[in-house]
Amino acid sequence: MMRAPLAALAAVAAVVLAGCAQVVTGMPKVPAAVLPAITSTPAPDAVVEAARHSVVKVRAPAGDCGRLLGGTGFVVAPNRVLTAAHVVAGSDSVSISADDTVLDGQVISYDAAADVAIIDVPGLAAAPLNLAGLPVAPATEAVALGFPDGGAFTALPARVSQVVDLTGPDIYRTTTVTRAVYIVSLPGGLPAGASGGPLVDRSGRVLGIMFGNDVEHADTGFALTSVELARHTTALTGGLPVWTGDCVS
């Protein structure tokens, strides 16, 4: 599938990282989605119910910056949870809540450029979700799963608008990175606390990981594609804790 490179666009927008309500400037401006309004959850209830047991709430205290970070993650392999790196940036420890059970974990992979982190969670019983193998076409119906504002599990109706090669800053605004990203039509945008959650299709396959919003278009979010996520699967067999960097300012 052909993707549109956005690095050449001169205008600059801002993206809100929805896990910790951080603003990252310097992202290229993207066009607003021109698609029919989403009026219902575009995934069968059975698909959402099956996936919810593999979607977890992430909590990560960061003492150096006086914050309790929070977001969403999902199971990608036995005892392994994938989330957005900014959800655990600068954290001292991490725990996840799965089906009302709280488990301690440790970050074993942290990529500030891609905004991806993997957490080792011993004793995690939830089954892994399957990653989609290829990018999907625009107008594909989907649902974003997560815990808005750290509350109850929620299925947010969504639709893929475009898949693009998006060039912009990493979470610390210290380097530039190009990533394959879905521009997602999402009524109201991605709420705080839902960042790091999966974007799934009608069959329950993970299309990508939600990580932020386009502040110029209130109903537009961003998801790192499953193709990008697959590049991190080598970390699934590791087990040693890694440094989670500095807090995101």
Automatic annotation (TrEMBL):
<dbReference type="GO" id="GO:0006508">
    <property type="term" value="P:proteolysis"/>
</dbReference>
<feature type="signal peptide">
    <location>
        <begin position="1"/>
        <end position="18"/>
    </location>
</feature>
<protein>
    <submittedName>
        <fullName>Trypsin-like peptidase domain-containing protein</fullName>
    </submittedName>
</protein>
<dbReference type="InterPro" id="IPR001940">
    <property type="entry name" value="Peptidase_S1C"/>
</dbReference>
<dbReference type="Pfam" id="PF13365">
    <property type="entry name" value="Trypsin_2"/>
</dbReference>
<dbReference type="GO" id="GO:0004252">
    <property type="term" value="F:serine-type endopeptidase activity"/>
</dbReference>
<keyword id="KW-0732">Signal</keyword>
<dbReference type="InterPro" id="IPR043504">
    <property type="entry name" value="Peptidase_S1_PA_chymotrypsin"/>
</dbReference>
<dbReference type="InterPro" id="IPR009003">
    <property type="entry name" value="Peptidase_S1_PA"/>
</dbReference>
